[in-house]
């Protein structure tokens, strides 16, 4: 990808007022990466970096920052990270936030059988519902709820679930007025977890986040029936079919409480 810099452990990255030292890479993706960083006072944070590219017309970090700041101005919910700092460099943007732990996809894979117990999955679901309620009340829909975008905390917050990554999020209502739906909306989120409305290129609303959460919880404790599918048409067909036989869908796994 053009203009991708070589960032490495020990490198110094400055914002307007703070100097950060890159400690270790936490994640890597097509459009950027995430590092654990230290400031000069030895405080630990996460730095999310987004490469500047010609194939993305607007930086998604700007959307994330706006939403995170709006959340903190209006709620004390424990399910969202804190925005700390940001800056723009010649080849990338970055934002600094509070640090979280592993995502739920990684944690599930680390289990002996690669799954959560039903009890654990339900506990996750209750926390994520709280987070989505707070997000929806503020007028946003996440549009990318999935295990990789749900993380545990660190330190004394390891039992707390954080809703992460708002790059796909959108406003669905403003001043308590529902936004006029667009006729053709690009599919958002990961194919395995996105809603049927998204597959149909319809405007998403809070119900679509809940649908993605249901897929997420079943994935964590049972696996999804379309796990082996790669074609979107096949996945859509199976999602439609489960509406005729939801009992089988929820009984797929054999794990007990």
UniProtKB/TrEMBL annotation:
ATP binds at residue 48. Residues 20-257 form the Protein kinase domain. InterPro entries: CK1_Ser-Thr_kinase, Kinase-like_dom_sf, Prot_kinase_dom, Protein_kinase_ATP_BS, Tyr_kinase_AS. SUPFAM superfamilies: Protein kinase-like (PK-like). SMART domains: S_TKc. GO terms for molecular function: ATP binding; protein kinase activity. The keyword ATP-binding applies. Pfam families: Pkinase. Keywords: ATP-binding, Nucleotide-binding. This is Protein kinase domain-containing protein. It comes from Steinernema carpocapsae (Entomopathogenic nematode).
């Amino acid at each position: 990808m053009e203009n991708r810099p070589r960032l490495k452990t020990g490198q110094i990255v400055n914002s307007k007022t703070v100097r950060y030292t890159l400690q270790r890479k936490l994640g890597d993706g097509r459009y950027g990466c995430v590092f654990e960083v230290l400031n000069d006072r030895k405080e630990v944070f996460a730095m999310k970096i987004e490469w500047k590219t010609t194939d993305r017309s607007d930086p998604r970090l700007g959307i994330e920052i706006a939403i995170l700041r709006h959340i903190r101005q209006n709620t004390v919910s424990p399910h969202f990270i804190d925005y700390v700092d940001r800056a723009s460099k010649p080849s990338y943007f970055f934002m600094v936030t509070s640090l979280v732990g592993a995502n739920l996809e990684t944690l599930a894979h680390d289990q002996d059988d690669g799954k959560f117990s039903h009890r654990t999955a339900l506990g996750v679901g209750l926390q994520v519902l709280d987070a989505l309620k707070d997000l929806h009340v503020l007028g946003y829909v996440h549009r990318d709820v999935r295990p990789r975008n749900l993380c545990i905390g660190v330190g004394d917050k390891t039992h707390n679930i954080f809703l992460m990554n708002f790059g796909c999020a959108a406003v669905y209502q403003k001043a308590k007025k529902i936004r006029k739906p667009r006729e053709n909306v690009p599919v958002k989120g990961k194919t395995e977890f996105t809603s049927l409305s998204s597959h149909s290129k319809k405007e998403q609303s809070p119900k679509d986040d809940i649908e993605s959460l249901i897929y997420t919880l079943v994935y964590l404790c049972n696996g999804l029936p379309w796990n082996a599918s790669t074609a979107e048409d096949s996945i859509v067909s199976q999602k439609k079919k489960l509406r005729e036989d939801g009992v089988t869908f929820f009984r797929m796994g054999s794990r007990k409480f």
